Amino acid sequence: MLGSEKRATSWVLLLDSAANVWPEPLAVYAPCCSVMTPDERTVVDLVALAAADNRPGFDQLLSDMINDDGREHIYAAACRFIDSCRYC
User: Fold this and answer.
1) Hey, what long-range contacts does 5-14 have (CB within 8 A, 24 or more apart)?
2) pTM
3) Cα(68)–Cα(41) distance, rounded to whole angstroms?
4) Residue 43's closest CA among 25, 23, 63, 28?
5) pLDDT tens digits, the chain, 88 residues: what are they?
6) DSSP per position, the chain
């Protein structure tokens, strides 16, 4: 669905990074589902903020539920995903 194995791997690593620091289990629907969970929507918003180089907005979106180290971990994974999309 993402067009390459590299992109898919980067996406899975991003979700794994988020799941490791998320305050509760990260909720995702099956790929065939036509809607997203609130957690999926948040991850997509985080990717959009990282792609726009809007680190303050990224941090603000997560500041009430994830500490600085966790946000850094997710931000790095989001940037790796974005890079995989740019260079494939």
Assistant:
1) 6/84, 6/88, 7/81, 7/84, 7/85, 7/88, 9/84, 10/77, 10/80, 10/81, 10/83, 10/84, 10/85, 11/81, 13/77, 13/80, 13/81, 14/43, 14/47, 14/74, 14/77, 14/78, 14/80, 14/81
2) 0.86
3) 21
4) 28
5) 666 777 888 888 999 999 999 999 999 888 888 899 999 999 999 999 999 999 999 999 999 999 999 999 999 999 999 988 775 4
6) --SSHHHHHHHHHHHHHHHHHSSSPPP---TT-SS--HHHHHHHHHHHHHHTT-HHHHHHHHTTTS-HHHHHHHHHHHHHHHHHHH--
Give residue for tokens 């995989």. 84
